[in-house]
Fold:
Amino acid sequence: MRDGTVWDGATAFAALDPAPDRADGAVAVRLIASVVLIRDAASALVDALAAAGVPAIDVADELVRSEARARGWTGPLRAPLRAPLTAPLGPTSPVDVAAAVDALMPGATVARRGFGRSALSVRAMTDDGLRLRVKVPDRPDVVPELMAAGLETAFAIRRRFGRMASGVRGITIDDGAGGMDDHRTLGSAQSQTGTFFLDTSLACADSIDAQRRRMAGRRGVSAATPKPWFPIDGVVAHEYWHNLDTTVVASPAVYLELNRALGAELGVETYEHALRGREPNAPPVWQQALARIVTEVSPYATTNWRESTAELFKLWWCPPPDGVPSPLVRCFGAVLDRFYPAPE
Ligand SMILES: [Zn+2]
Structure:
């Protein structure tokens, strides 16, 4: 590490931005965008930070956080991590996943539920009585903080939308998110069973590593969630919307108002028109509206109404911490707030 930058040979892979005004002395770790941060590099980065005596780090990267926690760095879910008093080189002994998830979720009890041969089953119950079960492969690379984040996001959506959100009972994390094994689908929802499926690349370090190597720095088609949110938060929100949207589509007033308001924001009659912007002979205003969906939401949000609103919901639920979401996302959120006000 030199000049506030962490190097791997001749390659800079992270810049440190000290914030002298911060009480915890946390240094923001800014990853250099062109570097594909695989697990080995994340691990070397944490060792370099410990060796340099950095007291705390403010970083959202899943692998850096997972490697840091494995070396005894501590802190609440999604918050800065504080260095241990004596930093071990290399990860310490494997953790009890259920206990580690429980420790990261104040206001909830998380416990292992029985013993499966290849899967770890966990039950989470909040102090206000909400329950979810999570199934994850029983592997040593499961990242407790990512499981906790996914659970916390699911509980928060459940709390915000009340009974309309009560259809989700469980989350299963497996390779290929419920059989869609093309590594493009990070989640899938099956509303009949009350379960949604998430790919292991959202919660297991080796799969995150493999996914990053495969993507090699390319962006996915789906919207990326801003710091401090993890990709799993965004996919949980997206999949949860597929449960909520059955109510929305069955409520003509809400459906029509979403269609009208999003269309008005984009300067077209309805959102459906914007989504048809790629059709041959689509008027220029439809095409321009479609282009705004790509930039303000994601390429995947141009697929169809259902996927588009799921992507809007993801970005509305996971806003940037110090900014506001894009105008289209704000418009979407305003309609939801109007028809489904937050509980007191
Ligand atoms: Zn979807």
Notes: The first strand starts at residue 5 and ends at 8. Residues 238, 242, 307, 310 surround zinc ion (CB under 6 Å). The CA atoms of residues 107 and 128 lie 8 Å apart. The mean pLDDT is 89.
